[in-house]
## 1
Amino acid sequence: MNLKGQARAKAILERMQEAERIPSALLFYGPSGIGKTVAALDMAKGVLCLNSSPWGCGECPSCRHMNHITDLILKEEWDGLSVYSEEGSRKVFLYLMGDHPDFVFVPPHGASIKIDQVRAVREFSYSKPALSHRKVVIFDRADLMTREAANALLKVLEEPPAETHFILVTDTKEALPPTVLSRTHQVEFLPLDRKTFSEILGDAELYELSGGSVTKARALKERPEVLSMVEEFLSLEPVRVYEVAKKLDTMDTRGKDLFFSLLEEKVYEAFREGRIGYDDHEVIMQRILEIREGIPKGLRVDLALYSIYTLMEV
Ligand SMILES: [Zn+2]
């Protein structure tokens, strides 16, 4: 497994694999964009490998299916993987599944992971493995589970299916109910230092701006226009702010979120450098947090941006 800067997590996981004592529920936690999801996918590959190779032999039919699905998941090419259930006229998104019959990946649907998703996973997890000796379910952004979904998952974890392993991945484990946390074996992932960050991306140019997140830095490299928009906005000139708001409104969810997460870093930088005071910093950060939570729910971002403009203007 190629997991840079996470020597401790890697060692813990390797020990479990080698001893063949993998807990039925694992929780990977730590800041976003530092390799937790990649580690979960690699771990799954190892657990499912037909040659019992700790991180997967890469050659057996199970590993070949896992290589394929991992690639698509990380590129977010989800169209061919999305599994839905039909309930009357309602189409409910459940999870992502490729050609491997014993593996599912559960990302949030819209703003949350919903109870329908957990119910579907429960059914999946109590059935017999079809290709491998075991099955794996990954919940990505597990902190976004609704309370009903978390309660349903708790029931499963209380009577863990013998052959299924769950891996929960989260940036904020505090958002999960303590009852769920206590049923998981927790593995901490640490923030990347500048050197490791630079080894992964080729340079450390975006280290501060991305808050050390490789995922965010990659998104920024792909969409440099978002950074220019943030800079335009920070000029606080009404006409330029208006143009940014208009452009932001037409962007996809990921673009919008990237914009506000960059704004967050810029506001923090201004605070560190003494350009804005403590109270203003707190109020603006709180507002940005609310906006980021509102984006997947269809919040009007142009109006939201003006509300920050008003706060910054004074
Ligand atoms: Zn294999």
Note: The chain has a mean pLDDT of 92.
## 2
Amino acid sequence: MDLGIKGRRAIVTGGSSGIGFETARVFLEEGVRVVITGRKEEKLKKACDDLAKRTGGEVHGVVADMTKESDIVKMVAFAKQKLGSVDILVNNAGQMYSGRFAAFDDKEMQTQLDTKLFGFMRAIRAVYPMMKAQKWGRIVNTIGGAGKEPDPYMFGSGMTNSALLNLTKSLSTEFGEDNVLVNAICPGWVATDLWVRNTEGMKKEFGVASEAEARKVAAKKNALGRMGKPEELANATVFLCSERASYITGVSLNTDGGRLKGLW
Ligand SMILES: NC(=O)c1ccc[n+]([C@@H]2O[C@H](COP(=O)([O-])OP(=O)(O)OC[C@H]3O[C@@H](n4cnc5c(N)ncnc54)[C@H](OP(=O)(O)O)[C@@H]3O)[C@@H](O)[C@H]2O)c1
């Protein structure tokens, strides 16, 4: 299927690894011109080189910490300079903040909110005027299932994610008249560096001794009995950004192998 977005211009935040990297790859294969971001310069450069080599597409990297508004402004100015404008924003950069209430830390929660809630919102604020003027735009927020189904261990991420679901729906209503579509994907457990970084906590939470066992427990929570691959999340994201999704806005697509058991 031709996704109809050849030549479109996209920012993928957190495109230097995991879900964001795969999203950038799929965009490039579709002929989209892409800017990716991350905090670590070397890692970002390596990702750009790798993506360009694998796809032959046009990809640029800019270091931007999503907790800093000045970096977000710099990121969008960079994209305008390299691409001329922005048609697609994938708000993906982020971390997981896990742990039960007894271990809750205000400072860490603030960082989580700064990265995902304020980071996503500020990026939208910076690109929206261009999309509104063009009467075409796609925004996809990478959120997470804990925003829909609260889990005591995912308390911090869950609160952030619920707020992001509200933001997605609210803005989809407001931006609809400008043909700017705002959607979200909600990953379950995806095998990325993020998961590896959180293994110690998962082992304790699941009561198992090794990372392999923790993965097995996580996989069993899904209907499909396995963890997600980053490219599976990327495929859903790129579809929502495509011309083929022209009548879809305000949805949060569970891309989780059947992890959530509720009706939304
Ligand atoms: N993997 C899962 O199971 C899972 C589940 C639910 C939701 N998610 C969400 O999916 C998104 C992608 O996660 P992933 O699993 O692909 O993780 P990942 O492989 O660790 O990639 C995260 C990306 O975000 C960037 N990043 C992190 N914090 C940043 C910040 N403050 N400013 C700018 N860039 C930042 C990283 O670059 P640097 O390393 O240079 O900072 C990297 O490019 C995240 O928003 C995460 O919360 C993931």
Note: Residues 14, 16-20, 37-40, 43, 64-67, 92-96, 115, 142, 144, 187, 189-190, 192-195, 230 surround NAP (CB under 6 Å).
## 3
Amino acid sequence: MDRREFLSRLIKIFFTGVAVVSGLIALIFAYPARIRKRKTLFIPVLDELDIPRRGVKTVNFSYKRGEQLISTRAFIVQHKGRLFALSPVCSHLGCLVNWHRKKGQFLCPCHGGKYDIEGNVIAGPPPRPLTRLPMKLDKGKLYLGIKV
Ligand code: FES
């Protein structure tokens, strides 16, 4: 093998390697394992008659993710004629926020994050609003959609 042939092979190997690594990175970003495997599980959290006519109601519930039993909560909100559900997970670093009825705000105990009744950030470091959870009414029950 002469020098020219050696360099030609070396360049081919290099670009083949770059193409393979780029393809793998693209696959990882296009189909992250967490998204591929997770599905939405609808969990009954409240009787339809207990849906708040105005304001915020905290609901506590549990569900199974694999073998793990997870207990958590969510907020059912009726505001300006709209019904929606908010996740309690702060968008900053994931602490659980609490509803403060007198202030009319969700408060994060960790770094002072504050959200309005619609989950919009009004103070502190959170970069995004609280996540709205999928919700459905069926046979007198309110269900929340949780990614499992
Ligand atoms: S985790 Fe909520 S403000 Fe930091």
Note: The helical segments are 3-30, 33-37.
